[in-house]
Structure formats: structure tokens, C-alpha cells
Amino acid sequence: AVINFWLQRLGILPSPATLHACGTATPVPRAVVALGSGFTWPCARDCHGPLWPPSSHGQCSCAIRHKSAWGRGDREPGDLITVCNPLTKGRGGAGERSARLRRWYELMMENKEELARIITAENGKPLKEAQGEIVYSASFLEWFAEEARRIYGDVIPASAKDRRVLVLKQPVGVAAIITPWNFPSAMITRKVGAALAAGCTVVVKPAEDTPLSALALGELANQAGIPAGVYNVVPCSRQQTAAVGEVLCTDPLVSKISFTGSTATGKILLKHAAGTVKRVSMELGGHAPFIVFDSADVDRAVAGALASKYRNSGQTCVCTNRFLVQKGIHDEFVEKFAKAIKKELHVGNGFDAKTTQGPLINEKAVEKVEKHIKDAVSQGASIVTGGKRHSLGKNFFEPTLLSNVTTKMLCTQEETFGPLAPVIKFETEAEAVAIANAANVGLAGYFYSQDPAQIWRVAEQLEVGMVGVNEGIISSVECPFGGVKESGLGREGSKYGIDEYLEIKYVCIGGL
After folding, report:
1. Active site residue: 142, 283, 398, 492, which one?
2. What is the pLDDT of residues 365-396, one digit of tens each?
3. Can you tell me whether residue 288 is helix, strand or coil?
4. Neighbouring residues of 131: CB distance < 8 A, sequence distance ≥ 6
5. Which pTM was predicted?
6. Nearest alpha carbon to residue 490 among 195, 203, 251, 233
7. Whom does it interact with, and what assembly results (predicted)?
8. Which of the following is catalytic: 84, 236, 249, 317?
């Protein structure tokens, strides 16, 4: 009922359309999903069954080809900049794209409460966190509205007197955007903002668990004057996700793939995209270390640990997955961390003002947390606090802290993606860095120290794409987001994010 109410407020569902957990069919909002009927829209988080009939492989392919008319299609190559994005037509150009993105940002901020409630309803995260996500999400539209005016080329001094050498930057074309459920709004705008600023059109496939935020963004895009065919949404069922992903990655009319999700899925999409050698951006899994050295401010480290680990109930790719605490302050840190967990964290309904920990996305996620705890305890780990499902329901889990953890346990070898904090005791800096770098992924890493020399050493030695020094939350629109090793390819946000959607063309003019 909450989802239905707010979607009606945003104009996505016509009143009196009703969202039923049992799977009542409703019309496709064609203004948002200009692909016709047939795509599956899963219900909110605790519902069962699709609202629309399952989509087919062929329908998705037709949708891409229809939208490709804005990119390559039957046009001449020289028309790419003009037809790739209707916002580049006429006199508007970069200025027009900037204005439309700016207006989209303003509409998000005007509707931030409604958008946040949609996130909480379909994702389960606490409303306060959802409100924060909407502000963060909107900031990418604001940022890339400004970056749209700064796509600069180059004039290069030529070696011959009768030549002039230019470098142009042009949009890659149609971009397929595949996003996760844990940040159903921000992961879209971080990609789409850059793509539209560059002059591309996009086909967004939101996570099957959280399609409503993508559709709400589409309605606001329409209100902002983003032309039809520029922002497109393809919701689908869990059963059709693999097929839709394959079509997006293999269709030759799609020029760019941007994906946020697991490393395993990323590898599959990379294989699909290799057939047509597409431009690819991948923001994949993490296994973030959080190192606390003897020189650290323990109270500050505990506060950072609480924020880094338990935001969104531990369901973020940059959440700390392994705590490494030096021997001299280990016991003090564990004691204070346990007290902070019991005092500051409250499991509950996301719409309850005092809730800080909502449900996990599904029972499979809960089972993984349980598996990691069981494995650790069987090998000698101790449960300091938490350790079991919460009485509120099957998808709610108690914030958990483990001590006496070793590197042989599953929770230190795999990303848990849940409210589990395992603590490993170490003795030397070299030991901590070696443990941190032993993973085959490297997205984010954190450490706490008040030794300037140590700060420089460890920051440079950690094999991750992002480092938080004496900070537990590091994401920012101005800063490049991305990882190394098997955590992905490319960067999002910042001045570098728009480059992922641009081709560089060298032009040599002779006979002058």
C-alpha cells in the first residue's frame, strides 16, 4: 500500500491501480518504460510473485533495437553526436543537457521524501538511510549537469607545417546500465548522470528486487524534460535476469555496459560483452579490511567501525568485512565495539524512526550470514554479541560481533554482505597489510592510526581502489569510486566518471 501510494503521488501508477502481494496485473507505465507490455516487475521485498507476465529474450532484444535509433541504428557514423542523444539537437548541446540534468536533480530534491519511502518499502533499509541515499543519488545529477559543459578536446602541435591535429571526445552510443538492489537509486544516477552528460542514451535494468526506484526516477526524468527514448527502464523477473543481461551484453547496437554487482556475475557479463568488444565498466564485490593500529584513537575507530560495518545492515560493497586489530589495543577495541553495537543499533521496521538495522534483502542473504557464523564458531571463534536471527522475522538478523577469528574461517575469505563483524588480532604492521592484501578483490580499505609515517606507508601499500584513513564512510560525488584486482574496471563519479562514456577521436587535417 505504501509503494502504491507514493508511486501514485509521483504519477508512475494511475490511480486507482493497486499493488497486490499476490501478483495482480497492472499496466506498464509507458511514459517510463517505453517498451510495451510483457516485462516482469517483481513486488516489494516481502511479496511473492510477479505483477506482469514474464518477458522474453526476443522482447528485450527488440527493445534495445528500438532504442538504438537514438544511437547508431541506420544512421551514418558522422551523425553519432546528433542522434545519440536528443538533448544534443539544435542549439542546446552541452548547455541543454546540463539544464535538463539540473532540473532532474531539482525534482529529486523536491520529491526526496517520497523517493526515500519507495526505497524503504522495496529494499527495507531504514528511512533515515534511504533519505540519505536520495540526497547522495541526486548529487550525481547535479555534479554531471556541471561536468556536461567540461568535455574538452585538445589541439596538438603537429610535426608538419601544413597539418593541424585535433582530439575530439564523442559519446559512445547506447549504454546498458545494470544496477543492484542495495542502492536502487544512487547506483542508477551515478551511471546515468555521466552517460547523459556525455550525450549517450541508456537502457537501465534495475535489480529484480528493487525496480520501483528506477521507475520513479524515470517519471521525474520525464518531468525534467529528458526526451522520450533517452532514459529507458527494463524491469524483469529473477527468472529472466540472466537472459536480459545476456541480450544487453551481446547486442551489437549496445556500445557500453556498466554493471554494479557481484564479481561472479561481472565475469559472466564480461564474457558476453567480449564477443562485440564493448566498452565495459564493472564495480564488483569487495572484501574490505578495517585495520586498527596501536596508535589509533580507539573511540574514533569504534565509531568508524560501527558506520562502516552496519550501514544498510552490512549490505554494501564497501562495508568492512574483516576487522584487524593490533594486539596492544585489541581487547579494549572489542569491548567498546560490543557496547556501541548494543547501545546504538536497533533492529526494526525501516519506517520506525528509531530503527538503524532493517531486514536483509532475502532469506538467502540471511543463510549466508548464518553459514559464516557457524563455520567461525566451529573453528574456535567466540560470539561477543548477536549471532542469530531476530525475533521480528526470518529476514531480520542481530548485529553480530565475533572475536578469536582466524584467516582460515569463511568470514575472512568471502564477502559476507550482512551484519557480521569478525575481529582478527595481529602483531605487526607487515602482518596486517599481508592479511589485508591476501584477497583477490580490492575495492575499499580502512585503517586507523595517528602515526604520520605509518599512514603514508599503509595507504600506499593497501591493494584497493579507495582508502579511508581515520574515516569509516568515504563515498563522495567528487571522488572516483572503483576498485582494483577482481573488484572491477573503471571509475564512477568525480571528473573521471564521464570518461567511461566517451570515445576519443583523433583528427588530422592536412594540406593547409
Report:
1. 283
2. 999 999 999 999 999 999 999 999 999 999 99
3. strand
4. 112, 113, 116
5. 0.86
6. 195
7. Homotetramer.
8. 317
